[in-house]
Amino acid sequence: MLCDTLRIGMEQKHALKTYREQNNLSRTEVAKRIGITLGMVAHIENGVRKPSPELALKAESVGIPKNVLRPDLWPVEGQA
After folding, report:
1. Residue 1: is its pLDDT beyond 80?
2. How many domains is the chain built from?
3. Is the residue at 75 inside a domain?
4. How far apart (Å, rounded) are the C-alpha atoms in residues 76 and 7?
5. Boundaries of domain holding 31
6. Which of 1, 5, 22, 27 could form a disulfide with 41, with the two C-beta atoms 3.0–4.6 Å apart?
7. CA 56, CA 54: separation in Å to the nearest integer?
8. CATH code of the domain containing 52
């Protein structure tokens, strides 16, 4: 399963949106890069879905840091 359905913390909830905006990426671009639906990107950004570790690793393979999708598993340096 690529995502678990649950509510997640604010820091994690906004990590993908912050990354996307800082890199001038649309939700559609992120969805295409990772290979997920536009709706899934919205669910991740809104805290409706929590991406699996596998999805985070898949994102990393296309240039999106894994800690953007799962900062709970891979904290940003200096924030652990």
Report:
1. no
2. 1
3. no
4. 21
5. 3-62
6. 27
7. 5
8. 1.10.260.40
38: Cα within 13 Å, side-chain hemisphere: 5
Taking a C-beta distance cutoff of 8 angstroms, is the pair 50, 4 a contact?
yes
Please state, in angstroms and rounded to a whole number, the distance separating the CA atoms of residues 79 and 77.
6
**E strand or H helix at 60, and its extent?**
helix 53-61
Residue 16 · residue 69 · CB < 8 Å: yes
Q: What is the mean pLDDT of residues 27-47?
A: 95
User: 33 in a domain, yes or no?
Assistant: yes
Q: Is 39 helix (H, G, I), strand (E, B) or coil?
A: helix
The pTM score is 0.78
Is 14 among the domain residues?
A: yes
